[in-house]
Sequence to fold (568 residues):
Amino acid sequence: MTISEEISELSTLLNDPSTVLRPPETVMKPTNLGAVRMTRFSFSRSLIRRAFMNQWEIERLVVDFDEFGRGHIIYRILAEGKLFHFVAFTSTIDESLHTDRVIADVWDVTAALVEGEIDDKFLQFLSDEVPKQELSRLDSRVLVLTRGNRSVRFYDHLVERLANGKQPESKQLGDAGYIMRSTAFYGNGKFGMRSFLGFEDQHPLSAPYRAQFLAAWLFREVSYESVEHCAKAKNPDAAHLNDEWNCFFGLGNATGLGLVPWAMKHPEELNSWISIRELALSNVRSLRGSTLNKQILEEWFDKAYQYFSSLGGDDRWPWMGPDSLAKATLLIHDTFRSLSENDFPFNDLYLWAEKQDVEITELVVSLLLELDNTDDEVIDSLLKVTNEKKDNFNVIVGDLKKIVEEKYFWLNELNLDESEATHYWWVMSDNAEEPRRAERSIIDPAHREIPIDISLRLKKLTADLYATNEKTSVSEFLHSFPEHGIAVKRLLNDSGPYSEPRENVCDFKHLPLNLQRFQLAMYGMDNFAPQSTDWLRVTLFQGAPRVSEIGSKDSDKWILPRQPGGLT
Fold:
């Protein structure tokens, strides 16, 4: 079967009644989305598999650091006939200026991923513009703009340990798994950069988010280079990170409310992401218990237990922490042993997990998906959403009523008539141009409102639909009720079964962390550490191969790395 045939077949499966898929009523619950974990389809993992499979060549071209790690570093990337460079400008800023937020004026590191050659003139251009970040004006040679800071807690610790000829101290690091933290990865045409639409189909970075995650992988590389350089500046005989620590550290990240509007404004992408997971889960559940597949899954259970138990730590509201997840993994493993001789042990394990806490359910899903072998090219193609749907207003009010009754019946479960349902606005802040939620009673959003109150809009639309003659054309209806344009468009653009989170993001009880975690897991992040109801810290590429290791080791079993020395 060709790739194109397989793509067509997989796309058709969503509407095939014989395919056993989890219903949207389950999958799209906020708590289910908020329990999702990384899978083999996550963007960080697919990037590294692609780099290894196609033997990308990545080399450090220039290192110009002073004793404090200030200066610049350049990496050259040759990928499938295309030439790229990653250029990072490094500095040191006062500890008080370090922040997890997007808003800042200075950073320890600013960087860009660019396509093509770099001469002195272009390097000077990047040196002038990249540190400005949002205030920069770039051109189509630039694909990604990023920035971040050294970890206040751990960077100096690592430098001192290495300078003294020692390795990092596990207990001192706690559950941290990074040297530096990134705060943004801009792409897709911002600030004059190349738009995602500017990548041809066979371009090595044409898959969604691939350019951003290549930049993130190289940003992580900068953190290693920087800390070892500063240690050597203190002591020419400083130690290098040994084999155990050499791949352990990832790249820290913190994310906030901006992910919620993205999820609500991109139903096609959301459906694509989730459909891939659900189709793969269906495939795995249909597998018989071959000796090889059972062995592979057993190995992943062991790996997960080692990871969680080495981190250690209490629960992190509203989610389980490492200690609880380690115990859960042992329970999952014991349960699988009792089911392993069944004809369909993977399906039986899932059916057991479905009755457990939702985090156990999704942990099982994540581990089961390691048995799926869908081709990466197929996945990449399914992830490419065109968003080129045309509005069709050649329908009548009766048609809209039918769509509401068949696909949006869940609105009745949200208590949209309660006062708490309209507690928040979603707005764009004037000073930072960042999404925020504000109490409706305090702030009038005026021109700043972000129209992601989909549930509320559909509720209002429904009331006026049922007060209108069924044979009225939608065009006539909108002429009388122009305020319903967004809601009508949402109904008419059927984006698939997994396109709508089943919640009201304006409700007083809405928890942004759930939608945030879903997207972060899809990106390939882990070690979720909420800092409030609105934002959390995570780690990316923890355990991933270094760029110098392309082709020399397994490219896909790096996740869930055991911390050297461990905590427990």
